[in-house]
Every structure is written in C-alpha cells, then in structure tokens.
Amino acid sequence: MPGLGDATRGRLLFGGDYNPEQWPEETWHEDVRLMKAARVNSVTLGAFSWSKLEPEPGAREFGWLDTLMDLMHEHGVGVVLATPTSSPPPWLGRLHPDTLPVTEDGRTEWWGGRQHFSHSSPTYRRFAAAITEDLAARYGGHPALTMWHINNEYCTVDHGDQAAAAFRRWLRARYGTLDALDEAWGTAFWGQGYDTWDGILPPRLPHYLRNPAQVLDFRRFTSDMLLECYTAERDIVRRHSPHVPVTTNFMPLWSGVDAWRWAEEEDVVSVDLYPDPRDPLGAQHGALVQDMTRSQARGPWMLMEQAAGPVNWRGVNHPKPRGLNRLWSLQAVARGADAVCYFQWRQSRQGAEKFHSGMVSHAGEEGRTFQEVKRLGADLERIAPAVTGRPVPARVAVLHDWHAWWAGDQDGRPSRRVNHPEVLSAWHRALWQAHLTADFAHPEHDLTPYALVAVPQLYALTDAAVGNLLAFVGQGGTLVCGFLTGVADQDDRVRPGGMDARLRELFGIRTLHEWWPLEAGETVDCEGFRGTLWSEELEGDGTADATVPYRGGELDGLPAVLRKGRAWYVSTLPEPGPLRDLLASVARDAGVRPVLDGLPEQVEAVRRGELLFVLNHGREPVTVDVPGTHHDLLTGTDVTGRVTLGRYGAAVLRP
Question: What contacts 267, CB < 8 A, 6 or more positions away?
Fold first, then answer.
C-alpha cells in the first residue's frame, strides 16, 4: 500500500484545510497567490461540502470542485481530497431520520452542526458510499490528487435503535451464545441475565449504575462501527486510485476509538493537535501526542490540523505569542511529522468557527499570523531534504491501551480522581523533562527494541499482555510500572488478589491488602518524596531487592516502591520532580541517556535521523552546549560547541 512518502515526494507537506465554497471565486485566485508566497504545497478540499456537492438527493454539482482541482494543479499545490461524510446535508436527516444519532437518554441529535450521523444506519452508509463512489470515479486520476482524507474526526456515539440492532449483531459475533455473554458481563450480579438477544440494548440511561462490562463492550462496538464506516469509504477510493494513500484524522488521546487498531487500516496516520498556548505544559502535551502518533504510524506521520492562532472553543481563547506557532510546528517535525497543516487556510467570516484562526487571519496578508506562516513555510522548505522520511530513535516505550482505559474509566470505582490521560501525561512529562525521547506501544506489541518500558497505568491486561511484560523482563529489559495495573482481565473481571498473580510475583508483592485513594490536595509521605492521588497497602514477599517505604500515617513502613531485579512497582503517583528523577535514574541504569547532557529545563533536544533539533520553550534567550561543529539548516550558519536560541527559538543541526 502507498504511504506518506507517496504524497510528500521528498517534501514536508505544508498547508491546511481549504474551504473555498465559503468565498466568491475571485478570492480563490487571491488564495493561490498567497499560498505560493507562503510556500504552501498541500490543501485539503471538500471536508464539509456534501450539501454543496449533492444539494438534493442524487444531484451532483462537481463544476466548482473541477475548477479548484485544476487551479491547484496549475499552481503546484497538491490536494488531499476529503470525502464529505462527516457533515451530511440537512435533507438526509429530514428525509431519513434513521440516519440521525440518539443520545443515551433518547434525545435525537439533529442537523445544523456536524457529525450528525448514525454510524450503524444502513441508509447513512448507502448515501455516504454513493457520494464517495462518484468523487473517487471523477477525481481518482486527477494529477492534483495526492491523498484521500476520509470523513473528519470520527467521534459519533449512537444509542438509538439502529445502533441497538448492530450492537446485538456485534455481540453475537463476539460471544456466540447468551451463556457466554452472561459470563463475560457478569450478569449474575443484580440478576441481569438475558433470555433473548432482543433484550440487549446499548447502555442507555439507567436508574443507577450501568453494567461496566456492557459499557466496555459498547465502547469497543462504537470504535468498530466507526471503523467500518472508514474502511467502507477507504475501499471505494482505493479501488479507483490504488496508488494514492488514504488517511483520516485522529483527535489526540480521545477515548472514542481504539487508535492502535485504526492505525493498522490507514496508509497515513494523521492527528489534530491544539495545545493551549497559555498552558505551561503545552509543549509537553504536544510531544506526547506526537510521540503517540509516530508510534501508531511506525514512522513519519501527518499533523493534519493545528491552529495558527487562537481556537474558538475554550472559555477564553488566547492567540499564540509571536514565535510559538513556528516552534511547535518544528517540534512536530522533530518528533516525526512529514506534514505540518492547519485548520484552516483562510479564517471564516461566518459560521460556528469564525473566531477560530486561519493561516490567513481576518487581518489578512499584512497580519502577524500570515507573516509567521510565511516564515515557517520557508523554514520547512529549507530543512525538508534532510529530514523527510527519517526515523526518530527511542529506547524507551510507554505502554497505552484504549481497552484498559475504557475498563478503568467507569463509575463505581475506588476514586473518580484517577484519570487515565492525566496519569499517562504525568509519566510522559517526567520522561520529557528528563530529556528522554519515548515511543508508545500497545502492551501486546514487540517490546524487544526498547531498554526501558514504562507502564503509567493499565487497569485491565489480557493474559497475552501480562506474558509479554514478563518475557520482556526475562530477556533483560527494565520495566517500571505504576499503580492500579493488572487489576482486571479483558472482561473487567477483577483478578484474584486484586492484581495478576504473575505481576505480584514479578514485583515481589505477597498481598495487596487495600487500595488507599487520596483526596484532592492530600499527599502521602514516602522516604525521599511525597505521593499524590493514590496509595496502596502492600505486603512484600521478601524477594524485592529494594523498597522505598511510606512514612507516617496508616501505611507507615509498608513499601511504596519495590524493585525486584529489573522490575519496579510504584504504588503512588510521585510529585513531578521526584517522578522525573526516579524515571531518569531507572533509565540511566538501563543504559538510556538524553540526546544532550546538561540541557536547561526549558530546552528540548530530539534527534531525527542525523539531525539534532534544539528547541527553546522559554521566553528568555538561552545558550546550549552542543559538542562538535554543526551546520544550522535554519540559519545556514555553522555553530561550534554551543548554540544560542532566542525566545521560542530553534536550531536544526546537521553534523
């Protein structure tokens, strides 16, 4: 299958969503002039244009899109052509209400926004396939076409009758018999056993708590139904243009789809990324999403959307300070992106997102936003030949699994304060602040390329995943594992002893007596640090090589941290500094070191191929020691021994 390289052709793709149907045709020619000035070489067309392409059932209005495809090709701008199926036209919902999604409490979600479709509706799927078929037949051979973009940000959840029927079919395929389903769902609790498949519904609004195994399977089902929608359209466009890669855009660390499984079905893995410019940890959030997307792609990936300035959906929407857009874009390239794109090209004058920024803002060509976009386009063009397609080496893996997240993110658990993404981010932040580049991996993936594997939290683990962790340590790898891991199996059935027995033996734990979650602001004292969020009443089995005890309180003297050989267990969430120091120390013992030693706290250094990216996330200038002589591709100058970076400054160094 084709990949991102087939679309980039040795360039870094640069551009964004282009919605010219919002503008008169004379503006299109002005857009092309500005695109050339900014070195834009890629635009995404058609993502929200279903009603423009099919204004009434069966009609086809392709003339405007013909003009745009030809115009882009004439000026050397490649087109990522989107299927418009994320925003069905109003007539579809009006004539076919079975295509509309239903919430858990029975409310219909109407047209007038976007994503108003039932993923399980045969009618929706039929109309989506028809418009996709005609798009692919018309443009599959067009010379401007470089990539297909299916739908947009798949995120629909449906509890309606169409979804209920599909959910029953999905469950029949998974379990075969009602007895097997009752066993997996633990329906003996509260007398929930089913006598017929027709009695099974999506987890609609209950009187009290839902069955957690039912909710877990419904999340799996929803991911699978959305994936069926994607693959149906993907297969249509592939049939017409097998040489053109296909993608759809993930939302970062979103709970709705199993992105590991989805990535296997994509030629190009792409993501939308919108860190808050006011967040002091915005760069770390960006790094986490970039590392995860690179790992899903197993190589170069596409930044499908970012904001050139403010967004429109936060309570207060701040613009990006001067230089931050360039810095965060270069960070994405450093961490494996071969495409840096935006939503959107020209800021809208009407509609729900008219205050969401564009590469061309309301200030126009002379505005700061566009001037910074022009500078970035020149930078990307300058470094592209040396960076495109190059790998990002990492000897650390952070494990993440959507099914473990879904199982642990339920009502009726020991603490609602335990938030899987926040724990995951805390551990990744500790590695990032220790200047250690990390991949992400599924717990059943091959872990042999890594010296250190970190498990922030995986509440539910399959037997295969547990065996994989044991094998990794047995083969000489170092494992450091966080609290509340290995508690349940794939059906959210609590393991005997409250943690998988094989893991307890691995870490030197005899008994996990009780979980002791912490209130907001509450901490536990441990020898050398304080723990937050969580603690556990553990009894060691005497085989651990080292322990760090709790000090004071109910858990005084019991182990907070255990190390047995190369396996570490951390039963609380250390405060950020101690967690960073712990992971840095464990990494050092495993033979993993930062790209550069002695980096200032606000500086990030990442190696991609032979290039060294040095990024200053601070507002003050900083000087960084860089042994040897390097050529800075951004400035065209040589640097020896050290490089000085201004506010939000960057250097891309080649030895």
Answer: 1, 2, 3, 4, 245, 246, 247
Rounded distance, CA 381 to CA 11, Å?
7
DSSP 8-state symbol, 488: B
**Interacting residues of 519 by C-beta distance below 8 A, sequence separation 6+:** 417
List all residues 6 or more positions away from 106 whose beta carbon is below 8 Å from its beta carbon.
Answer: 159, 204, 205
Looking at residue 584, which CATH number applies to its domain? 3.40.50.880
Q: Are residues 621 and 584 in the same domain?
A: no
Catalytic residue among 54, 109, 233, 305: 305
**Matching residue, tokens 């960076």:** 387
pTM of this prediction exceeds 0.85: yes
396, 454 contact by CB (below 8 A): yes
Separation in Å, CA 613 to CA 373, 417, 440: 20, 37, 20
Q: Rg of the chain over CA atoms, in angstroms?
A: 26
pLDDT at 6: 86
- Annotated catalytic residue 153: yes
Q: How far is CA 468 from the centre of its chain?
A: 24
What pLDDT does residue 323 have? 97
- Residues 477, 409 within the same domain: yes
Question: Among candidates 401, 503, 507, which has minimal Cα distance to 458?
Answer: 401
State the 10-residue block means of pLDDT for the chain, 655 residues long: 88 97 95 98 97 97 98 98 97 97 95 94 98 98 98 96 97 98 96 95 92 97 98 98 97 95 98 97 97 98 98 96 98 98 96 96 97 98 97 98 96 94 98 98 98 98 98 98 97 96 98 96 97 97 95 96 98 98 98 95 96 97 96 97 97 97
| Strands 559-564 and 249-250, sheet pairing | unpaired
Cα angle value 56/54/71 (rounded, 5°): 150
For residue 650, what are the β-bridge partners? 615
Domain extent, residue 615, equals 603-654
What's the farthest any 2 CA atoms get from each other in the chain? Answer: 78
Total domain count, the chain: 2
From the list 54, 109, 153, 372, the catalytic residue is 153
Residue 446 sits in the same domain as residue 548 = yes
CATH code for the domain of 616: 2.60.40.1180
Query: 645 and 572 in one domain?
Result: no
Q: In what order do the strands lie in the sheet with 523-526?
A: 523-526, 529-532, 573-574
Q: Of 551, 566, 589, which residue constitutes the final position of a domain?
A: 589
